[in-house]
Amino acid sequence: MSIFSRFFGRKDAGKAQSSGLVANPQLKGNVSLQVVFPAGLPRDQSVLTARLRGYHPEMAGASCDISTEVEQFFALAGWGRHVVQMVGFDLSSPQESIEACVAPAHYSQALKEQVRAHASHILLYYAGYEDDPLEQYVALAAVSGPWRSWAPSRYSTKPHALRCLPVSSVMKALAAKAWKSCVACR
After folding, report:
1. CB neighbours of residue 140 within 10 Å
2. Which residues, at least 6 apart from 13, have a Cβ–Cβ distance to it below 8 Å?
3. What is the DSSP letter of 184?
């Protein structure tokens, strides 16, 4: 089954499923994060899969499928009940969106300038089978974690919600307590 079918939650009848990752077509109101990078996006599926699996013990069975059929980054990642849709672009996010998040943020001007100067971005959408929005955000933050070594100065913004945080802050806040509360990860 193609990554495009699975990305949109379609299970092609009669075709072998290449991966266990299929977006939940019943999920409404997906939560999302945007991560910005100072350089282009990496596209090595085996490296990202290994980094996801090594990120936290609960993710030891994680998998990742990255499409090679499109020019931009188009992928699924997940483990257990979690599936995350990823769409990335090797160009900066619209400055109006970035500015709406960065201008009111409570961190240094130097950090804000790094975010404004980003070169690429990726959108992460929760598409799994967990109903609790907190658990969904934990999964999104966990998927953003392995990107750290590729983009040490990356930042998460929640599209349409006007929030912007350094991903390291998100990960610290979600560290031990979030994993303990993650019902789907037990």
Report:
1. 25
2. none
3. G
Query: What is the rounded distance in angstroms from the CA atom of residue 42 to the CA atom of residue 122?
Result: 11
CA-to-CA separations, 166 to 12, 37, 54, 151, 174, in angstroms, rounded: 39, 11, 21, 11, 13
Per-residue pLDDT of the chain (186 residues; tens, 9 = 90+): 788 788 878 776 555 545 679 999 999 878 898 888 888 888 889 999 999 999 889 999 999 999 988 888 999 999 999 999 999 999 998 889 888 888 888 878 988 888 888 888 999 999 999 999 889 988 998 898 777 655 544 455 554 444 565 556 555 655 544 544 444 443
Distance CA 2, CA 152 (A): 32
